[in-house]
Amino acid sequence: MQQKIILFTMMILIGISANYVYSQEMSLATFQETAQIIVDKRISQNVTASITLQSTSVQEIKIPAELEQRIRENGNISAVIITNQNECILGVYEESCIIINVKRNQADKNFLTIQNSTLKTSEQFIDEINEIFDTKAELHSTFIQPSDEMNSALETSGVISGKGTVSAVYTMPMEDTDSMYEKISSILIPKTIRDSGGFYDAARNLSTDENAKMTFSIIPSENKSLLQLRISTNYSGIASNIDKIKPLEFLQTDELHRSDYFSTGFYPLNSIIQVVVLSVENTNVSDVKGNIAQTQIIDGEKIPTDITKQGWVFDPEEGQRIQGKYIFGEKTSVTNKELEFSLGGKNIQNEKQEFDDSVPIVIIITIVAIAAAIFYLKGYKK
Length: 382
Fold this sequence. Notes:
Layout (H helix, E strand, L loop, with lengths): L1 H23 L7 E9 L6 E9 L9 H10 L2 E7 L11 E9 L7 H12 L3 H7 L5 E7 L4 H6 L10 E9 L3 H12 L2 H4 L4 H8 L6 E8 L4 E11 L8 E2 L1 H4 L4 E3 L13 E16 L8 E4 L2 E4 L6 E4 L3 E10 L5 E3 H4 L1 E3 L17 H17 L5
Parallel strand pairs: 1-11
Antiparallel strand pairs: 1-2, 2-8, 3-4, 3-7, 4-6, 5-6, 7-8, 9-17, 10-16, 11-15, 11-17, 12-13, 14-15
């Protein structure tokens, strides 16, 4: 009888474990949506809010596969950018730009040879880019990027701009951001994603802000290109007075929904909210209104231990540079109140959790998968 009871108990435990493993199973899609708030108390004193839709698939952000391959295999191009940012390059005013960033050939020792090498590369692509996006951008200038000050502050790779990059700049008439976003997104984003709402709708709403600007970037790497469509807006000169962060206020919405594009599975890392605070003096995160995810340090990265739970991961949570990532877990939306936190005051108290032999192996595997995904998602810092 005792053996039967033990066998029955084991069957129940196996069933529970199987369900637990299934509930923890996650996927990572190539399409990602990211909302980012940068509170820059160090350099510009501005707050920049942006929403980025990105993918490495030309089926989800639709540029001709042949063009993507040619840009990537060229080897000299670090980025192709279409933007209506103010003064996209020094000397350009009230015009939209197509910028083709080319890696500087160290053998070129004067401006004329640098210019000729850069244009030789960019002229292979500009006519096709104009045709795809129904633009008529014409050559304005070549520009040698002098530094990567902001890239260094944000710890980004500097591939869009930065020292060692030469830009071939083509200009065209300035276009309102909302109309430009409607036009470019209808070309790039498939109807199935546009109809799925989420961050796409939030970006569409943000594009109507009077200070909003749009940027589309192709960032090639060895095997594929990162394709990014970004809407951003600037709140000038207010950063120094901010001690309470309400992220969605800067995105001009009370609630942010995930895209229904992810409703067919569990894709917890494909919708991320990120807040970065740059400060001259040391500060810290405090008075967090919503959840703080339990974490472990994996390969130097703070990783949530349960991705089914929504909440903040602050890493670092104090110092001159603070970064918070919010994951939705199994939730499909979040309100402004749930995201609110303060700077200064009493530090947040994270619950620490130690691993032991009783922790199911599925948790360890899941955490390693999250670590890999977050490293992968660092592309959005670009």
